[in-house]
């Protein structure tokens, strides 16, 4: 009985000591020492997101080369466009220049409206004057308006044959147009060919004269 009580007291003493001391938690090996490679095996998703969707993505060598080729292509296209524009401007200028040259009277001729006029410095008969004008590519002047009448009167200094001739009772121009508006001087004179006397006012400075008489002449050529 004494031994049983002693053991019972010993057990109670151990229980009391156990209650007074805190129990240590048992930890597994994985919980005590975390795996240092776990983060490398499972990289965070934001690493890939930053690589592919970041503000400044990393450019590869092929990407840089492609971008360089695109810039070169644009420069070449711009250069070719400028050349085309320059050539177009040159063509337009040459066309206008050619048109001006085509509509320019020869040296010694006067330009008025759509015609060139040549006031001679030598004297011929009416028929010879007409032949001379035809050889130059024109004919004796046909005065078709008051403007032309005033222009030739102003530019002239002498008396000139014009392309007016009488056939029967009708006065006609060398281009077969009949006379509509005339500028005859007062009085009458003999002759079947018309002459412009530039010393008189333009309203009345036409004379009639013998066609074989010699005087200056006015040639006209259409542009």
From TrEMBL:
Residue ranges of the TM segments: 72-96
Annotated segments matching region Disordered: 1-40
Taxonomic superkingdom: Eukaryota
Domain C-type lectin positions: 112-220
UniProt cross-references to SUPFAM superfamilies, sorted A to Z: C-type lectin-like
Pfam families linked: Lectin_C
Sections of the chain in a coiled coil: none
Cellular localisation: Cell membrane
Cellular component, GO annotation: plasma membrane
Keywords carried by this UniProt record: Membrane, Transmembrane, Transmembrane helix
Gene3D superfamilies on file: Mannose-Binding Protein A, subunit A
PROSITE patterns for this protein: C_TYPE_LECTIN_2 (PS50041)
Membrane topology field: Single-pass type II membrane protein
Protein name: Si:dkey-26c10.5
Source organism: Dicentrarchus labrax
């Amino acid at each position: 009985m004494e031994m049983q009580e002693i053991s019972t007291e010993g057990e109670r003493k151990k229980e009391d000591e156990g209650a007074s001391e805190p129990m240590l938690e048992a930890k597994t090996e994985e919980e005590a020492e975390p795996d240092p490679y776990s983060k490398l095996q499972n990289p965070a998703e934001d690493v890939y997101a930053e690589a592919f969707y970041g503000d400044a993505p990393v450019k590869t060598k092929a990407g840089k080369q492609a971008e360089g080729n695109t810039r070169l292509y644009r420069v070449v296209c711009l250069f070719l466009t400028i050349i085309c524009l320059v050539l177009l401007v040159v063509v337009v200028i040459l066309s206008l220049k050619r048109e001006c040259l085509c509509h320019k009277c020869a040296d010694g001729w006067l330009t008025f409206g759509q015609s060139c006029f040549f006031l001679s410095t030598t004297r011929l008969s009416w028929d010879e004057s007409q032949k001379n004008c035809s050889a130059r590519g024109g004919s004796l002047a046909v005065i078709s308006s008051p403007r032309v009448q005033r222009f030739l009167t102003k530019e002239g200094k002498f008396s000139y044959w014009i392309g007016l001739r009488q056939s029967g009772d009708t006065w006609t121009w060398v281009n077969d147009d009949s006379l509509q508006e005339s500028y005859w001087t007062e009085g009458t004179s003999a002759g079947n060919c018309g002459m412009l006397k530039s010393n008189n006012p333009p309203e009345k400075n036409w004379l009639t004269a013998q066609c074989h008489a010699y005087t200056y002449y006015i040639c006209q050529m259409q542009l």
